[in-house]
Amino acid sequence: MKPGERILGVEGGGTKTAWVLVVAEMPGSEFRIVDQGKMPPSNFRLTAPERLRAIFAELPKQIDRAGVFLAGCATEEDRRSLKQVCLEVWPNAKIVTGSDRDSGLAAALDHGDGIVVNAGSGSSVTGRRGDRIERAGGWGHILGDAGGGYFLSIQALRLLLREHDLHHSEMQFTAKILHALSLNNFDELVRWVQTADKMEIAMLAPVVFEAATGGDPRMMEIIEEGARVLCEYTEAVASRLHLLAPKVALIGGLFHRDSIYTHTYRRRLKKNLPDARVTIADRSPELGAAWLAAEAGDHAAFHSKPCQSEIDSLAAALTEQRNPRSENLEKMSAQQLVEVFVGEEKFVQEALRAAVGELTKAIEIVARSLRNGGRLFYVGAGSSGRIGVLDASEIPPTFGAPPDLVQGVIAGGVTALYQSAEGAEDQKIAGALALDERKIKGSDVVIGITASGRTPFVVGALARAKSLSAETILLTCNPTVAGGVDADQPGSPTPATRSDVDLVITLAVGPELLTGSTRLKAGTATKVALNTISTGAMVALGKVRGNLMIDLHTSSTKLRDRAVRVLAELAQCDCESARNLLEANDWNLRVALEKV
Fold it and tell me: For residue 14, which of 41, 38, 40 has the smallest C-alpha distance?
């Protein structure tokens, strides 16, 4: 390996793909991390080659070596096939491929002997002694993955069903699950489970751990069972490798995030392997992948030091400044707090009035796009993303529009609607790929919503939309955005600017009462702005007569009653006649109006 070579490490599985770009300044030197990030899943068995190419194509192009290690890449034929996909993306690079077990071993053990126990959404146990490798578990969530997040969550859900069937009662844990999923009752939970994928179910593991930590004995039994199976696999691997006092390295989200699981595993393992040395691995598997790529040539010391490149500070955003009118919130009475909150709403009104011109242009852009066969996409993260999804979801029932006409795209996907997934916003690549999945075309319009003006997920989506000739609009509450969209630096927090998009709408609501909490004034102003844009566009498309909805979906008693009142008013007839006419036309209000 030559000094200064750029080495890409990629580790992928069923829930995410993590990557790191490193440089070794000289043989035997430490790795210097240049860039890193996370992308959508890339399990080799579950992801089509075209999808893998699309994901890899978003990674840094200028590299000398790549180590790509994916779950499901188990055989020599798999490795050759994966290498061929990689060479299509990096034709001049030295490519090393393999399983995520390999990169986990490299990250946790370097060249040494020992056992790696991985507990994330799935699970696996892999051991090494010299050139010999032994494995247990890791068969996927359908056949096993005992001890992983999916296993723990599905065991908890099955327990709920068992208690319901045997005793017709609901456990306290049921309420916690319903709250976590924003569901209302047991039947809704059952329907959700029937359509949920592995990742969605595995995401319930923190609820299981929270309940166990709170003293729920049934949840603690599930955690004990998961740890027991992982210990059983560890002991089997140690026995086959004749390791009496093995180093046991723990990797994966469950061990890193939930100390109760680490303690439970240690305690159980000590019974049968008292001399085992259990540690939490401090190196990431993607760094192990990069090291294996480097190892294909000369040896590089397996250490890292952070990138020294300058990172723009989010503190410059107006929405991150402290509000002098709320510096003593904790000392206010309830009435004083309410009065301060209500008083701050004048800044929302002022911001909206100042943006009348931009909102007008936005309505014209969106209406023109929809008239020409395009679609409207809202893209956001956190509160901004939820507001976008909310407005998009209201368009079909309000205006009778097809569900794909206006779509909300939120960082972290549907899970982020009811559970915090703030880290999902940090990658431009994820925003770009999210739009690729929706087959963005030139006639579409994309509105990126980011209070700070610099959320990477949104910036990446806007850059991708613009590259595809779609109309782009940035909605921000930060009037000082500066810099530019740099698609080649996917981890950069560089904000979007007026030159990067077709229109910028600035809602300068000022600092929040709770510093940085943009669900407050920024959220209110954003909702009003989106309401204005979408409603204005629907009016322009002829979905409204006067101020009455004439394409509403009459899917409930309330909406049928509204349709009767609308028809009676527009047709100048009594309600009974209006109802009869609607019933004769399958409750299609527009058709009924045309027959008046």
Answer: 41
- pLDDT band of residue 1 (cuts 50, 70, 90) is low
Where helices occur in 168-204 by DSSP H, the ranges are 172-181, 186-195, 198-202
Three-state SS annotation for 380-395: ECHHHHHHHHHHHHHH
Q: What does the chain come to in residues?
A: 596
Helix (H, G, I), strand (E, B) or coil at 567: helix
pLDDT digits (tens, 9 = 90+) for 39-76: 888 888 888 899 999 999 999 999 999 999 998 888 88
- Containing 210, the helix (H) or strand (E) segment is helix 205-213
User: How many other β-carbons are positioned within 10 Å of the β-carbon of residue 441?
Assistant: 13
Interval 136-160 mean pLDDT: 87
DSSP state of 323: P
Taking alpha carbons only, the member of 451, 473, 460 closest to residue 537 is 473
Task: Provide the angle, in degrees to the nearest 10, between the axes of the packed helices 205-213 and 149-167.
Answer: 70
CA angle, corner 271, sides to 268 and 274, nearest 5? 110
pLDDT value at position 465? 96
Q: What is the pLDDT of residue 305?
A: 47
Task: Classify strands 445-449 and 406-410 as parallel, antiparallel or unpaired.
Answer: unpaired
The CA distance from 127 to 112, in Å, is 10
Cα–Cα distance for residue pair 134/130, rounded to 1 Å: 11
Query: Cβ(387)–Cβ(518) under 8 Å?
Result: no
Helix axes 186-195, 172-181, angle to 10 degrees: 60
More confident residue, 540 or 319: 540
pLDDT digits (tens, 9 = 90+) for 384-417: 999 999 999 999 989 989 999 999 999 988 777 8
Instruction: Map out the domains of the chain with their CATH numbers.
Output: 6-116+283-305 (3.30.420.40), 117-277 (3.30.420.40), 319-540 (3.40.50.10490), 547-594 (1.10.8.1080)
The torsion angle over the Cα atoms of residues 560, 562, 565 and 568, rounded to 10 degrees, is -50
Angle between helix 259-272 and 205-213 (nearest 10) = 80
Q: Which residues have CB under 8 Å from 568's CB, separation 6+?
A: 574, 575, 577, 578
CB 291, CB 29: distance < 8 Å? no
Closest CA to 534 of 524, 544, 520: 544
And the tokens for 186? 């047991």
The answer to whether 292 and 104 have CB atoms below 8 angstroms apart is: no
- Mean local confidence (pLDDT), 278-283: 90
Q: What are phi and psi of 196, to 5 degrees?
A: -75, 150
Which residues of 310-433 form beta strands (DSSP E)? 376-380, 406-410
Answer yes or no: is pLDDT of 487 > 50.
no
Contacts of residue 495, defined as CB under 8 A and 6 or more positions apart, other chains included, come to 312, 452, 453, 454, 459, 478, 481, 482, 483
Q: Which residues are catalytic?
A: 394, 425
Residue 581 CA to residue 559 CA, distance in Å, equals 15
The H or E element that residue 79 is part of is helix 76-89
Give the Cα separation of 591 and 596 in Å (integer): 9
**What's residue 481's pLDDT?**
62
Q: Which helix (H) or strand (E) holds 449?
A: strand 445-449
267 vs 172, higher pLDDT: 267
Q: Could you give the CA distance from residue 19 to residue 440 in angstroms, rounded to a whole number?
A: 26
Q: How far apart are the first and last CA of the chain?
A: 81
Q: Is 420 helix (H, G, I), strand (E, B) or coil?
A: coil
